[in-house]
Design goal:
This protein starts with a strand and ends with a strand. Strand 4 and strand 5 form a beta hairpin. The chain is an alpha+beta fold and 173 residues long. The model has no long low-confidence stretch (mean pLDDT 90). Helices cover 14% and strands 35% of the residues. It is globular and about 35 Å long.
């Protein structure tokens, strides 16, 4: 399984998620690598296998035209039936039973997604445990948040564009 990793402000899309993993927050432990105040937006069309993962930087989506365009491009390419909104949480809140989102604008991002996506798109909202977000597919079964990172291909220095096995986006904000 090849694992494609992206950093803040980047997105990776694959035409077929089968045998692949998309991940963010996998870095060497540096705060900027993790989903601490950021969020991940994962779009999936399980019927076609198309999937994308975007590491959204914290902040008001209304002030981020590049992020809005990137997610519109992702939505067009993936045609998702499911979207997973994985938000950064505070580890200092003392509330393990109810994780607290750290980005005060996380609901604005969720509202944007609701407007962007067709009405029948299922949206799941989960906290980013350990500052990571990932999705993989094996034998037609999708799994979120898998800790394995075997065969990691870091795309953090990869330019936006279409490549043989994936497409890279950068938000430019």
């Amino acid at each position: 399984m090849t694992c494609y990793g992206v950093g803040m402000g980047q997105a990776v899309l694959v035409d077929d998620l089968e045998g692949h993993m998309l991940i963010t927050g996998y870095g060497s432990g540096a705060v900027e690598d993790r989903l601490s105040t950021c969020s991940a937006v994962i779009m999936l069309n399980a019927a076609t296998g198309a999937a994308g993962l975007y590491h959204y930087p914290a902040g008001d989506i209304q002030t981020k035209p590049g992020a809005r365009q990137l997610m519109a491009n992702m939505q067009e390419a993936v045609q998702p039936k499911e979207v997973f909104f994985i938000y950064g949480i505070s580890t200092d809140s003392g509330r393990v039973d109810k994780p607290v989102p750290t980005d005060p604008f996380h609901m604005a991002l969720l509202d944007f997604l609701r407007l962007l996506l067709p009405l029948n798109t299922r949206i799941g909202r989960n906290p980013a445990m350990m500052g990571r977000a990932s999705i993989k597919m094996d034998n037609g079964k999708c799994e979120l948040g898998h800790p394995e990172q075997a065969n990691l291909v870091s795309l953090e220095r990869t330019l936006a564009g279409s490549y043989a096995k994936y497409t890279m986006y950068r938000d430019g904000d």
